[in-house]
């Protein structure tokens, strides 16, 4: 089955460019388009895309609020990839904190766009980990507070789960983590699921952000 994608951007040329790049791939299908975040909810419910590629800045409802709305109201919500002009944008960091699974630059090369959609759909690796680390360095410390540290401490991760989280933050996939820790991939998946559950995180991106904001992982 192809990875299905919903495109949401107020610039028609951006949507057309993304559609052309994605539909050139045999395993990706663009199932719909919208010009603003306000139209996302009914389309997400009706089309059931695997991934929403969504502009972070839009006139009526921006990508941050649209992400929150999708995750709050759509059953079994799709993965969300926010699309942005500037990677070091506080809007991008807020979208990730709101539940987006990764971000993509509008100037990205076609191969990077395709890679981002596939990786986010699979959900077994962190998209652009170096860029997430830079965002955490610039914005995470501002957001980090005693509450974040206390919440992380209450999660009660085991030593092995902490190892897994550190490797997740470096962008390693489940298979790569398994090789590093000399365990099977299914064991890694179990540890990752436990980390997400204990941290109350939707996916790897939110778990890694929590790790940065709590001070468990230092930016850099």
TrEMBL record:
Keyword list, A-Z: DNA-binding, Phosphoprotein, Transcription, Transcription regulation
Residue ranges of domain HTH luxR-type in the record: 150-215
Biological processes per GO annotation: phosphorelay signal transduction system; regulation of DNA-templated transcription
Residues that bear 4-aspartylphosphate: 55
Gene3D superfamilies, alphabetized: 3.40.50.2300
Keyword DNA-binding: yes
Protein name: DNA-binding response regulator
Species for this entry: Streptomyces longispororuber
